[in-house]
Amino acid sequence: MSDRKLAAQFFDAAVALLQRVRNEEAEAVDAAGTLLADTVAAGGRLFAFGAGHSSLAAQDVVYRAGGLALMNLLAVPGVVGVDVVPATLGSALERVDGLASAVLDTSPLRAGDALVVVSLSGRNALPVEMALHARSLGVQVIGVTSVAYATRTTSRHATGTFLKDHCDVVLDSKIAVGDAELTLDTVPAPFAPASTVVTSALLQAVMATAAGALAERGIEPPLLRSGNVDGGHDWNGRIMEEYRDRIFYRH
User: Fold this and answer.
1) Which of 1, 83, 89, 182 meets the CB 3.0–4.6 Å disulfide criterion with 192?
2) Residue ranges of the SIS domain (predicted)?
């Protein structure tokens, strides 16, 4: 099979997944966007967390042109990306009990805020505890995960539960267990993951919904503009000044 055919197969698989989440997760996307809009309107703050490659989707909605300025990254040292050496340390930290609670208890999160937790499998101690402890603090949680993992794998949290079990809204990415869309007789393992494409699209759909919900209430959505267009820096400066007490990545 030619490389071009494999590329086409991957695009087809990714498009099919996007169509599924568009059709099957519409109500959940609306609920998540409404939750964020409610939080903004009530004076709350917005945070996003993800570990390993799940952090990519969380980072994509923070300090983003065309995105909500109030989205802040909740970072856990060592698990945000593959820049930590060795990279396997990040995977190990995801399984450490108590880490999420320690991070939350020293973070700016407080009752009335909203937290997006991204975890493809939703099985590791860190994302499960992050959602569980955040809700105990009065924070509303949106979970972005593949629900299929809860039926095909076992939890690594002491409670035996998954991320999906501790969320106010769950967005199911529909990604198959193993996160690989292609197979080939001459390749010994499945390959071509699509979770980042789908999860990022899901979250951008949520952000769009939140912006529209705020506008419908007569509230100007606190959106950022590209710094590479004329007037972008001035616009962003105004937004950041107006919401300076709810933006933590600028301090």
Assistant:
1) 182
2) 36-219
- The number of beta carbons lying within 10 Å of the beta carbon of residue 225 is 17
* CB neighbours of residue 30 within 10 Å: 16
CA 46, chain centre distance (Å): 12
Rounded to two decimals, what is the model's pTM? 0.95
Q: Is the dihedral of CA 113, 114, 119, 125 positive or negative?
A: positive
Cα dist from 243 to 51, 234, 248, whole Å = 27, 14, 10
